[in-house]
């Protein structure tokens, strides 16, 4: 059986068209399938539309979360409710085109891979969004030294082994594309041009996207804390140079050269230390979140 996980947050204008297409492409494969839609606490009619569609399509399962927990939590909820041998994750706004479902499935079978990821060659997004997405992927793929991950999103298919491995990760600060690449196994990819969202506004607000990017970077690299170290070491050298300068000028005799050097040294170290505290604070915040060990989501109801 093939299971498709689709997280949805206020997507009522798209639900019907999306499910019709997804069902059509899944049906063309001639395998058993189910579609697990996760309603991530939508405040519009997404849930009732899903339930309406379900009346005539028993293969649709709906996980209704108790509130909006965010994309990564919704995906996790979906993954924990699938029964299939092959599992697909996709966005529900047609940016992960349903017609690629058969391609993903066939590639997985032909290449005997455990995971096939859909990689975005071109993106059709607004200029600024494209810009910061590109910057994130540049940074992320270079710090994780994983080229495979560049330009990969949620869209993928995996088998049970890979699925079970991904669900072993109990971390709260989750970034599933990172985890998916981290687990290894036999990975393959297909390439596609990512279209614009078919309708409506993006549900990942800028704030949510930036928070996700920070989670990804903090949980998959030592880069921020390394940066502190390197800046600190640079600071030490600058400080040493300042000491030598001060001592030498004392002996040469033009000692009270004034406040500018003092002021510069104080403000330099002050700001460096505040930056360090900020970065360390980010780590402490994340450690705190992990230690609290709160549930990632709550299911209000599972319509099986
Ligand atoms: N989504 C979700 N919970 C959220 C935000 C988004 O389940 O809090 C869903 C959304 O409905 C969509 C998918 O996640 O199906 C991707 O969201 P969006 O298109 O806004 O993200 P982007 O295109 O910016 O990656
Ligand atoms: Mg989208």
Q: How would you characterize this protein structure?
A:
With 304 residues, the chain is an alpha/beta fold. It folds into two domains: 2-221 and 296-303, Spore Coat Polysaccharide Biosynthesis Protein SpsA, Chain A (Alpha-Beta Complex); 223-292. It is 51% helix and 18% strand. The protein has helices spanning 15-27, 46-56, 71-79, 101-111, 127-143, 160-167, 176-182, 206-220, 223-252, 259-292, and strands spanning 2-8, 33-39, 60-65, 86-89, 115-123, 152-159, 187-194, 299-303. The protein has an eight-stranded mixed sheet with strand order 7-5-6-4-1-2-3-8, sandwiched between helices. Helix 1 links the parallel strand 1 (2-8) and strand 2. The longest helix is centred in the last third of the chain and has 34 residues, at 259-292. It is elongated, with a radius of gyration of 25 Å. The two termini are 16 Å apart. The model has no long low-confidence stretch (mean pLDDT 88). It binds uridine-5'-diphosphate and magnesium ion. Residues 91, 93, 95, 197, 202 line the site of magnesium ion.
